[in-house]
Amino acid sequence: DIVLTQTPLSSPVTLGQPASISCRSSQSLVHSDGNTYLSWLQQRPGQPPRLLIYKISNRFSGVPDRFSGSGAGTDFTLKISRVEAEDVGVYYCTQATDFPKTFGQGTKLEIK
Amino acid sequence: EVQLLESGGGLVQPGGSLRLSCAASGFAFSTYAMSWVRQAPGKGLEWVSTIINSGGSTYYADSVKGQFTISRDDSKNTLYLQMNSLRGEDTAIYYCAKPKAGTWLDFDYWGQGTLVTVSS
């Protein structure tokens, strides 16, 4: 199985400051079709997960442009340019390149 | 607008069974693979199962293989998860998820979830 390791697991951030979460995969996430199916999810307290970023760097519909994704191969990053109060929650990276679909452990973003 | 509405969760005794349903709308359900993902209380996300189409291609996590059965009724736009021999470690919120077009596992929409509690 593909193991996704996120760092940090907790991230206290000041409002208006940037935040960054790393996701490292145990193997390349490049699919045989040439795409890299690495996504980022946001889960606000008491809510289901919500797609933020797909295929490394594509923002999903309605996602603010302060969220961005980057990376390649086995190393990926989610960045929030200026954290807002509504960004509090847990962020997961996840891969859809191969079965079984796997998720990172989650990174809890909280406001200092 | 895509909508996924899970139902069927509840309290069940160890060894019991439950069938979860996910009613889908707002997209061409029959043309999409569909999946279940669960989240134990206070824990992370765990993929459970995927059904590719009504032709029967299914995939399961090792933790539920032989215990859970995924199915779908395209005439009703509904996804199911039959859960048997339930154990305490199956306690979780169960979400159904729809993938982006042309993919099987690249989820773009999630339901609100239904809580399954296995306890005596």
Could you walk me through the main structural features you see in this protein, from its secondary elements to its overall organization?
The complex is a heterodimer of chains A (112) and B (120). Chain A has 112 residues and is an all-beta fold. Chain A has strands at 4-7, 10-13, 19-25, 38-43, 50-54, 58-59, 67-72, 75-80, 89-95, 102-103, 107-111. In chain A, strands 2, 4, 5, 6, 9, 10 and 11 form a 7-stranded mixed sheet that branches. In chain A, a hairpin with a 6-residue loop joins β4 and β5 (50-54). Chain A starts with a strand and ends with a strand. Chain B is an all-beta fold and 120 residues long. Helices cover 0% and strands 51% of the residues of chain B. Chain B contains no helices and 11 strands. In chain B, 42% of the residues are buried. Classes of the chains: A mainly beta (112), B mainly beta (120). Chains A and B meet through β5 and β10 of A and β5 and β10 of B.
Condensed summary:
The complex is a heterodimer of chains A (about 110) and B (about 120). Chain A has strands at about 5, 10-15, 20-25, 40-45, 50-55, 60, 65-70, 75-80, 90-95, 100-105, 105-110.
Mean pLDDT over the full residue set of chain A: 97
Name the shape of chain B in a single word.
Answer: globular
Please state roughly what percent of the residues of chain B sit in beta strands, choosing from under 5%, 5-15%, 15-25%, 25-35%, 35-45% or over 45%.
Answer: over 45%
Report the span from N to C terminus of chain A: 36 Å
DSSP strand content of chain A: over 45%
- Subunit arrangement of the protein: heterodimer
Please trace the helix and strand order of chain B, writing H or E for each element: EEEEEEEEEEE
Kindly state the number of beta strands of chain A: 11
Percentage of residues assigned to helices of chain B: under 10%
Low-confidence stretches of chain B: none
Pair of chains with the largest interface and how many residues each contributes:
A-B, 21 and 24 residues
